Amino acid sequence: MEVPTLYDYYRSSCSWRIRTTLNWKEINYETIPVNLLKDEQKTTEYKAINPFQVVPTLKIDGVTLTQSIAILEYLEETRPGKPLLPKDPIKRALVRSLMQAIVSDTQPITNLRVLKYVEEARRDEWPNHWMTYSFHLIEAQLAATAGEYCIGDEVTFADVCLVPQVFNANRVKVDMTKFPIIQRIYNKCLELKEFNMAYPYRQIDCPDELKEK
C-alpha cells in the first residue's frame, strides 16, 4: 500500500493539525517540506498539486486532499479507530463549534498571508490583539465544556486545533495567564506523544537553531 505523503511546513498551524491526527490514528506517512517563507507554495510544480497554494496537502488512498478540516474529517471517516469526534451528537457539535472558533475566526486573520499586508511595526501587535480577543471567547466556552481536555476527558479535534493556536499565541507574547483553562489543556496535550511528535521544532524542515529532539 502506498504510504501517504504530507506536504508540510513545520510552523503551519494547519499542517500541525494533520500531523497530530496522523500520529493519533497511527498512520505512517512521508513528509515533503514546502517552505512558505520562500514562497515554494507558489511554484508551478506545487500549484499543480494544490491550486490553493497553501499547506497542508495530503496524498492518501489515491487522492490528493487539501484544506485541513476537510482532511481531518476524511481521516476520521476512513480511519474510525481512535476517534477524535465523540459519538454523542451534542459533544460532536461542541467540538465543531470550538474548531470553527479557532480555524475560521482566529487563525485566518493572524496567518502569514495576512501579516504580510500589515505594516511591519504592527506585525506582533496585530496577531496579539486578535488572538487575545478570541481566547477570551474560547476560554468562556471551555469553562462550560472542559474536563481534562476541551470537551470533557476525551481528546478531540478541538484539542488538535487548539494546540497550534496556543503555540502561535506564545510566539507573539499573548499573556496566557489570562487563559488558565486554555493553557492547562495545551500543557496536557503536549504530554501526549502524538501531539509531542507533531511539535514544530521536531519536524525535519525546522531550522537547526530551533530544532528539538
Automatic annotation (TrEMBL):
Output the Gene3D superfamilies linked to this UniProt entry.
1.20.1050.10, Glutaredoxin
Q: List the keywords (alphabetical).
A: Isomerase
Q: Which GO terms describe its biological process?
A: glutathione metabolic process; L-phenylalanine catabolic process
In this protein, which residues make up the domain named GST N-terminal?
A: 2-83
One Gene Ontology term of the molecular function aspect: maleylacetoacetate isomerase activity
The UniProt entry, under CDD domains, shows: GST_C_Zeta (cd03191), GST_N_Zeta (cd03042)
- Looking at the record, the residues that make up the GST C-terminal domain are 88-208
Q: Which PROSITE patterns match?
A: GST_CTER, GST_NTER
A GO CC annotation recorded here is:
mitochondrion
| Alphabetical list of SUPFAM superfamilies matching this protein | GST C-terminal domain-like, Thioredoxin-like
Q: Which PANTHER family match?
A: MALEYLACETOACETATE ISOMERASE
Describe the family membership recorded for this protein in Swiss-Prot or TrEMBL.
Belongs to the GST superfamily. Zeta family.
This chain's protein is named Maleylacetoacetate isomerase-like
Species, as recorded: Rhizophagus clarus
